[in-house]
Amino acid sequence: MQRKLIAAAAVLSLVSAAAFATGTNSSSSSTSGGQSAAAVIGFGSFTATNAGIANGHASATAGQGFGTTGNTTNATTGHINTTSVSGKGFGGAAATGISGADAAANAWSKLGGGWR
Description:
Elements: H1 2-20, E1 23-62, E2 71-110
Antiparallel strand pairs: 1-2
Keywords: Signal
């Protein structure tokens, strides 16, 4: 009788562990970009400069529910673009640029082994 009780308790423990050993996954992505331009017209020395800045940030959190372990992942990236055009005499100068940044984050979380 005692062996059957121990066996039943072991089976119940395995069943509860299997029932609660679930995993969660989360992912996030961000894209950022912009365009800038500068122009100048004059006589003599002239310069046109533009600068574009783009930042991307992504955050992913997995396992926020009851009884789960939580995990958060962050990813940040940035890009700076600078263009300059200059000249002498009579005329003009123009400068354009495009900046872009992408960020991606993935997080995973898994619940523990269940009741014992």
